[in-house]
Amino acid sequence: MVLPPNVSEADFSAALGEFRSAVGADWVFSSDADVALYRDSYSIYWGEPEERVASAAVAPATVEEVQQVVRIANKYRIPLYPISTGRNLTYGGSAPTLRGSLVVDLKRMNRILAVDEKRHFALVEPGVSYFDLYNHIRERNLEVMLDVPDPGWGSPVGNSLDHGVGYTTAPFRDHFGSHCGMEVVTAEGEIIRTGTGAVPNSDNWQDFHYGAGPTIDGLFAQSNFGIVTKMGFWLMPMPEAYLTGTVTVPRYQDFDPLIHEVSYWEDLGLIGMPDYGSPIGGGFFAPPPAALAALMASGWPSIDALERFVGVEARPAWSVRLHFYGPEETVRANWQAAKRRFSGAIPGAAFQDGEFLRLPIPPEQEPTLPDKPRLGIPSLEVFAMVARNPSTANDPADGHADFFAMIPRKASAVWEAARVMFETYREMDTPAPYNPFSTPINYYSRCFIMAAVVPTWRDPARNSRSRELFARIMDRCAERGWGCYRTAPAFQDQLARTYSFNNNALLRFREKLKDSIDPNGILSPGRYGIWPASMRNTRA
Amino acid sequence: MNRVFRVVIACVMLSASAAYAQSDATRQKGNEVFQYWCATCHGRGAGMPGTIALTAKYKGALPGALEDRTDLTPQAVRFVVRNGAAIMPFFRKTEVSDADLDAITEYLVRRSPQPGERANTGR
Ligand SMILES: Cc1cc2nc3c(=O)[nH]c(=O)nc-3n(C[C@H](O)[C@H](O)[C@H](O)COP(=O)(O)OP(=O)(O)OC[C@H]3O[C@@H](n4cnc5c(N)ncnc54)[C@H](O)[C@@H]3O)c2cc1C
After folding, report:
1. Deepest of A198, A327, A429, A457, by most Cβ within 10 A of its Cβ?
2. Domain A9-106 CATH class label
3. Would you say the CB of residue A455 lies under 6 angstroms from ligand 1?
4. Cβ distance of A383 and B49 shorter than 8 Å
C-alpha cells in the first residue's frame, strides 16, 4: 500500500472510513488489486519507484458527494486527483501527478443533462464518454454533430480539461475552446458556476460563455484549481454533406504557398483539419523511400538538392487533403473555388476529387467508414496504428508518450522542426522517423505540430532510453523556442520550466493563485508544474 | 414409471433449464458489455486494433476476433481485462465491474471446451 505523503497510516484509514460513509463502501477502492487499476498502463516509469501510483480511489456519484470528498481531504490533508473517464493514455492515464494521491474517479457521474439541437450545445457530467454522447444523439436522431478525438472512450470533460483536440472545423476541434459554462467544486468544497450559469435562474448557460467580469474557466484546465462537475459544449449543427478533395503541388518550395492557401480556407472556417502529406516522402512517420534515404546519407540536403531530387522523382512534393462540411451546394462550390485559388497560387497544382457523403451517415454504413473521427463518429480504430501488426509481431511496444512541438504555420518552421527532431534522435543513436518531407499536424488551427511518438514499455531498461529521448526532445525544442501543448505527469515539471519567460513569472503567478485558492494544497499537487507551497521544494 | 422418479426427473429438468436460462442471461449481458467495452477493438472486420494485433500474434493459427475463439479460458480473460496486454490497457471497476467481467467471461468462453473436455487451442 502507498500512503499519501505526510499522512499517517492511522489518519489515512480514518479518512478512508469517512470516504466510505460519504460515497458508500463499494465506491472506495483501497485493496492493492483495485488501486493498481488506476496505474498508467503506458507509464514511462512502469514498475519503478518513480511511477506515480495512487494510494486509493473514490468514486462519488453526485456533486454533493464530491463536496464531501473535498472536505474530508482537507481535514486529513490528503491530495486528491480528479479524473473524468481516466483514459488519458500517453498523457498519464488515470494515475495521479503526485505519488500517493487519492484518485477521485468521476466515471459514475455520467448523466447527459442536455443536448439542444436548435441552439447546438450539450451539457454533460464528467463520466459521459464520447461513445455515450454519440449514442444518445443518434438514438434520438438529433441534428447535431460531435467533434471527437481519435479514441472515443474519453470524455468531453476530461479531454477538454487536458486541452484535447479533434478533427472538424476550427471552432469545434479545440475542445476546451468550444466549451461554454462549467460547474466546479473548489478546493474548499464550494460550488461555482461560470459564465451566465452564475446568474440565478439563467436559461442561457450554454449560450453565452463570458458572463461578465474576468473569465476563470481556463484555470480549471491543465491545472489543479478545482474539480469540474458539469461542462457545456457548443456543437456543430449536423451538416448536410461532407466532401473531400486532395491538392498536390509539384515542387519542394511549393510547400509555403500551399500552407498559405490552406490557411485561407482554414481561417475562414471553411474546412476541417487539413491533412498534409508528401507523395515523395511517404506518409506520416513512414520510413523514407530508398532514394530519399540515399540522398540523406551525407547529411540533411540543401533546398536546391531537394528541388533537384523532386525533379528527378517526378512525383508531387506535397499534398493536402481538404474536408468541407455544409450544404451540398456549398461544399461542391467550395471545392471548385479551392481548385481555382490553388491553381492561381501555385503553378502545376493538381486535384483529385475524394469522397462525397450525405450526413448523417446511416448506421449500417458506419462500420466500414474510414476516418470516423472526421465525421464525428467515435471509435478506437486509431489504436491500430500502435498495436501489434505484422511488422512488430514479436515485439510490440506497450504504449507510447506523445510530444507535440508547437511550431508556426510556415514551411521553413516545418523543415527546421523535422531537422531538430531528426538530429535529436540521431544524438541518441535512435532511428529517426523524420526527413525533409515530414509533414505537420494541424489540430490547433493557428499552429502546426511536429509530433514525436516515443515508445513506452513494461520494462525499465527500455523505458530509461525512452525517457532520455523524450526529455531531450523537449529541451531541444525549447532551446529553439517551441513549447509543447501537453505532457504526462512524468514531464510536467520539465515542461513548466520551458515556459520560463522573465524568471518563471507565469508559473510564479499560478502558484500564488494556488496558495490562495487551495490553501491546504489538496488538489492534484504538481499538475502541470503547479505545486502548493508545502511541496514546492519537491519539484522534479 | 414410478411417480417419485417422475417428480425427481421433472425437478432436475427444471433446475437445469433454470441454470441454463440464468447463464443465458449472463451471456446476453456479457455480449452487451463486450460490444460496449471490447468490440470497439476486438470486433470482426477491418480496422479493429485488437483483431489486427491478435491476427499478427497468432499468424492465422487462431481467429483474430475474440468472439470467434474456442480456446479462451476464464482465467485468461479475467487476467487480461485487469492487467492489460501490450497497448490494451486494463479496465477500472467503475468501467467494467466484477459482475460485468463475469458476464464478459461467460460470453467469451461460451464455445470453449468445458472443464474436463480436452482443449483444442489450434496451437
Ligand atoms: C492512440 C491514441 C490516440 C490519441 N488521440 C488523441 C486525439 O486525437 N485527441 C486528443 O485530444 N487526445 C488523444 N489521445 C490522448 C487521450 O487518450 C485523450 O485525450 C483522452 O480523451 C483523454 O482521456 P479522458 O478523456 O478520459 O480524460 P481524463 O483522463 O478523465 O482527464 C484528463 C486529465 O484532466 C484532468 N481532469 C479530468 N477530469 C477532471 C475534472 N472533472 N476536474 C478537474 N480535472 C480533471 C485530470 O488531471 C486528468 O488526468 C490519444 C491517445 C492515444 C493512446
Report:
1. A457
2. alpha beta
3. no
4. yes
> Is B58 within the bounds of a domain?
yes
Please state whether beta strands A318-326 and A350-358 pair in parallel, antiparallel, or not at all (unpaired): unpaired
CA distances from A6 to A73, A99, A188, A529 (A): 13, 12, 20, 20
Task: Write phi, then psi, for A343 (nearest 5 degrees).
Answer: -60, -40
Taking CB atoms and an 8 Å limit, are A42 and B82 in contact across chains?
no
**For A112-237, which CATH class?**
alpha beta
Q: What is the location of CATH 3.30.43.10 in chain A?
A: 9-106
**Closest partner residue to A37 among B36, B43, B93, by Cβ?**
B93
d(CA A466, CA A44): 8
Q: Which CATH class is domain A495-538?
A: mainly alpha
> First-to-last CA distance in chain B?
49
Bridge partners, residue A288, by sequence: none
Domain count, chain B: 1
Residue A149 Cβ < 6 Å to ligand 1: yes
Host domain of residue B89: 23-109
Residue B6 counted as domain residue: no
Contact, A126 vs A109, CB < 8 A? Answer: yes
- Give CATH 3.30.465.10 domain extents, chain A: 112-237
Task: Please judge whether B87 and A399 are an interchain contact, meaning their C-beta atoms are less than 8 angstroms apart.
Answer: yes
Q: How far is A537 from chain B (nearest CA, A)?
A: 33
Three-state SS at A68:
helix
The reply to whether B86 falls in a domain is yes
Residue of B52, B57, B86 lying closest to A384 (CB–CB):
B52
Half-sphere exposure of A245 (CA within 13 A, CB side): 21
Q: In 3D, which of A175, A217, A221 has the Cα closest to residue A196?
A: A217
Domain A398-488, CATH 2.30.30 — does that match? Answer: no
- In order along its 540 residues, chain A shows pLDDT tens digits of 899 999 999 999 999 999 999 999 999 999 999 999 999 999 999 999 999 999 999 999 999 999 999 999 999 999 999 999 999 999 999 999 999 999 999 999 999 999 999 999 999 999 999 999 999 999 999 999 999 999 999 999 999 999 999 999 999 999 999 999 999 999 999 999 999 999 999 999 999 999 999 999 999 999 999 999 999 999 999 999 999 999 999 999 999 999 999 999 999 999 999 999 999 988 777 778 899 999 999 899 999 999 999 999 989 999 999 999 999 999 999 999 999 999 999 999 999 999 999 999 999 999 989 899 999 999 999 999 999 988 777 788 999 999 999 999 999 999 999 999 999 999 999 999 999 999 999 999 999 999 999 999 999 999 999 999 999 999 999 999 999 999 999 999 999 999 999 999 999 999 999 999 999 999 999 999 999 999 998 887
B4 touches chain A (CB under 8 A): no
- A387 with B95: Cβ contact below 8 A: no
Chain B (18-57) residues lying within 8 Å, Cβ to Cβ, of chain A: 36, 40-41, 43, 45-50, 52-54, 56-57
Q: Does B61 touch chain A (CB under 8 A)?
A: no
List the CATH code of the domain at A241-385.
3.30.70
Interface of A with B in 361-390 (CB under 8 A): 367-368, 370, 379-384, 386-390
